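[Discussion] Sanity-checking designs against the backbone

I'm trying to build intuition for which residues belong where. Below is a structure token string of 320 positions. I'd appreciate it if someone posts a full sequence so I can compare it with mine line by line.
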């Protein structure tokens, strides 16, 4: 079912309007985002996402609404893994707490553009080459198993990040921050600030995560509008969710295990798509169930990550 152009324009315009309000009105000045504010904005984005799901239900029917909700929960759960990376990146660059929201806002904007392009490529491939779904399925299964039994991605040395190396090669970098600016002038020379390096690393890392998350949603639906809108709505709430969970994320030690199981399940589902039909509603229950179990197991039995715990204590001290 091809939706009219106005539906795409209306959705994108609504997203841009909300981001303009966020950037130009509510968060124009740098400040420390405390838990209460983060909880409010997380609730706002979740409410908007669920409300849009209701619109889809009224407009396109229950099946499309369930596909949207499943895609949203799947992308949201996989996006949670980004929070671990945000903590590591900000700690590595010793980014002042009050400037982190600016980096994440521009990071979200960049992520929306990149994911839109990647979704467009993915939809085109699937429409022309059905077998690409098996490639996606195999890739997700291998990725999930590597996450489950291999070394976590959170141990990566950020000094070796390709995006970081590229910026340092072509642009001089100031040794110090200059407020929330990405560029500054020192001794008559225009150069980047460490804040730009932080943004580049976060954008580069998001592309890596998108390589996993975007193929995963094609196991739920190949409808480009549902794929795009569920992905976008999940990403929009990521920034406020970071500030809400950053001080407790060190306790979710089994979350990556849960995400690995989710990716493996989605990979198997795609590999069996022409053999066994797994209802979308069942997939929604599986994703939510695995995510809930991993969080519950972390809180009850997990040993908190000490490095992230220390970083959380530093953030709490900065927020006071």
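Best answer:
Here's mine. Compare freely.
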């Amino acid at each position: 079912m091809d939706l009219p152009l106005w539906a795409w324009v209306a959705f994108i315009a609504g997203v841009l309007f909300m981001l303009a309000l966020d950037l130009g009105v509510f968060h124009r000045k740098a400040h420390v985002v405390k838990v209460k504010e983060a909880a409010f904005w997380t609730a706002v984005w979740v409410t908007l996402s669920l409300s849009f799901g209701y619109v889809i239900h009224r407009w396109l029917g229950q099946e499309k609404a369930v596909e949207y909700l499943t895609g949203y929960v799947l992308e949201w759960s996989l996006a949670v893994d980004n929070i671990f990376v945000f903590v590591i990146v900000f700690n590595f660059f010793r980014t002042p707490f009050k400037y982190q929201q600016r980096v994440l806002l521009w990071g979200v904007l960049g992520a929306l553009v990149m994911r839109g392009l990647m979704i467009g490529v993915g939809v085109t491939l699937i429409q022309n080459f059905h077998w690409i779904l098996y490639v996606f399925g195999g890739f997700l299964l291998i990725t999930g198993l590597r996450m489950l039994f291999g070394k976590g991605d959170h141990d990566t040395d950020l000094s070796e990040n390709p995006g970081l190396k590229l910026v340092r090669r072509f642009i001089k970098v100031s040794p110090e921050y200059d407020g929330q600016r990405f560029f500054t002038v020192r001794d008559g020379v225009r150069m980047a600030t460490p804040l730009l390096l932080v943004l580049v690393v976060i954008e580069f890392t998001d592309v890596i995560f998108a390589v996993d998350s975007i193929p995963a949603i094609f196991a739920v639906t190949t409808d480009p509008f549902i794929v795009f809108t569920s992905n976008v709505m999940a990403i929009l709430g990521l920034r406020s969710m970071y500030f809400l969970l950053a001080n407790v994320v060190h306790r979710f030690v089994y979350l990556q295990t849960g995400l690995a199981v989710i990716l493996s399940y989605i990979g198997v589902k795609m590999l069996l798509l022409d053999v066994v039909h797994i209802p979308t509603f069942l997939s929604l229950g599986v994703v939510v169930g695995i995510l809930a179990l991993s969080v519950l197991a972390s809180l009850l039995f997990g040993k908190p990550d000490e490095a992230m715990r220390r970083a959380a204590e530093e953030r709490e001290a900065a927020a006071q």
